Amino acid sequence: MSVTSESVGAVGRRLLALRRAVRGVLARPLTSFHLVVGLSAVLTGLGLVIVLSASSIDSLTATGNPYGVFEHQVVYCALGAIAFAGAMRVAPERWRAWSPWLLLACLVGLAAVLVPGLGSSVAGARKWFVLAGVSLQPSEPAKLALVLWGAHVLVARRRAAEHWRALLPLVPVALLVAGLVVLQPDLGSAIGIVVILFSLLWFAPVPMRLIAGLGAGAVASVAVLAVGASYRMQRLTSFLSPDTVDPLGPGYQAREALYSLGDGGLLGTGLGQGTAQWNYLPNASNDFVFAVLGEQLGMVGSVAVLALYGVLGYAGLRIASRSDDPWTRIVVATLTAFLVSQAMINVGYVLGLLPVTGITLPLLSSGGSSVVVTLACLGILAAAARREPAARAALAGRSPGRRWLRGRRR
């Protein structure tokens, strides 16, 4: 079949029309808000489907109920939806005023969870409170509290941004939070706190020479932590030399994850039709849920999910760039960088590009505190999107029946 100039021209006109349509949608005043709400709903819904598929066999084997993990996930998603709606209606100045007290409460929680009898120990890690069958991981709200308080400190001390004093007291407090998390031990959450710290400093902005010096210290600290515990050293060794370690050792998960992705091919095996969840892949519904997704939805589905996180990154940075409040800009940009980098790290170690760190895939991995806190973070992004100058003007003209979008009056 020959390609004529008329067909090429027709394709060009269609692409031009599509480009104009996309630009028209992006120019609407509430596009940022709709993107955040839509992405939150899509990722949460997809997460429930994948968690059900990945956990049903393991739940059936452990408890006789194939819906055990899924039911817990539904409960936490419902709590997350409430957190999203609540965070969306809180004015930024209130978050900023509450941030020191939120961080202090989280520090108390991080210290208390290490006390035998208060914190619950699972697989050698003491990082949960369990009350009436409901678990709470204090490191998750601590990340959000650190973002809110860190942005407050950086804005209040912006006159010292060119001096090393700009790192005070943010860096010592962030190191304290990370240290308490490492004691649990939870290296994945500690890496998340480091990402938050550098994102805060980057978006403040703090001079590159200070960030570079701090980065060198962070790399050295990670190296010390890696060799300071045998299981971390085994993970690093299995990543660097996957063919020279025990096939059933620390590299087993990463190797099985790659097999699952390979089995998925282009279009996948279909939802619920994979083999990874049949106890071939440990933590299939948690750390390695992307492998299950890749097997059942194939490369096309995997790329689509990555595109959703890419759109989330675009939406968050768009909201930050349009905000007229310095504190809101830093908070929104940092939360966006944290959520997207968390997804990149998780996908990176599932693909074998990074050592396994135990960082979950936002809204897709099973988990309680992480789902609730992630949706609360997205609620803050939605609140900031509603307060873009163009969005405020558009909402001011809405009918009384749609005033729920406006939130609390400022």
Portion in helices: 55-70%
Beginning-to-end CA distance, first to last residue: 63 Å
Average pLDDT score: 84
Number of H- or I-type helical stretches = 15
Low-confidence stretches: none
Backbone structural class? mainly alpha
How much β-strand is present in the residues? under 5%
**Total number of beta strands:** 3
> In which order are the strands of the major sheet placed?
1-2-3
Reported for the largest beta sheet, the result is:
3 strands, antiparallel
Along the chain, the helix and strand elements come as HHHHEEEHHHHHHHHHHH
C-alpha Rg, in Å? 23 Å
Q: What's the number of structural domains?
A: 1
Shape: globular
Overview features:
410 residues, mainly alpha, 15 helices, 3 strands, 68% helix, 3% strand, globular, transmembrane, Probable peptidoglycan glycosyltransferase FtsW, FtsW, peptidoglycan synthesis
